[in-house]
Amino acid sequence: GLASMPNPFGAPELTVHDVKRKLNGDEYFVWLDVREPYELQRAAIDDYRVASAPVSRLAQFNVEGLPEEAQNQDVTIIVFCHHGVRSAQVTMWLRQQGWTNVYNMGGGIAAWALEIDPSVGQY
After folding, report:
1. Residues marked as catalytic
2. Are the C-beta atoms of 88 and 104 separated by less than 8 Å?
3. Would you give the DSSP letter of residue 53?
4. Nearest to 82 by CA among 41, 117, 116, 35
5. What share of the chain is helix, strand, coil (3-state, %, to 5)?
6. How far is CA 33 from the centre of its chain?
7. CA distance between the termini of the chain
8. CA gap 109, 75 in Å, rounded
9. pLDDT tens-digit map of 61-115
10. CB contact set of 4 (below 8 Å; sequence gap of 6+)
11. What residues are paired with 102 via a beta bridge?
């Protein structure tokens, strides 16, 4: 499926099924949604791990634009967007800034809705 396509940025990547296994195992990670505010009402994942950091905010405020729970460079962060392109960029950017456990969710929220949870919605 979509999720098996490698991203063009070489970002370390997890499939939506990998992420689902982490959820099932009750693992803690920061699930970083880098989509823009207008996108959040179109499709959303309802989970306590989800934190919002729109790319536009990161572009403006740099790492200070990250939510508090993502400021720790050792925390596991799984980044997602609509299709996995912006999130791959953010994954690489965070790794360049010194974060060590950051992964892109391949295929983004679109793949999550398609393969894991249709109630999330497509747009």
Report:
1. 81
2. yes
3. -
4. 35
5. 45, 15, 45
6. 5
7. 18
8. 21
9. 999 999 999 999 999 999 999 999 999 999 999 999 999 999 999 999 999 999 9
10. 15, 106
11. 77
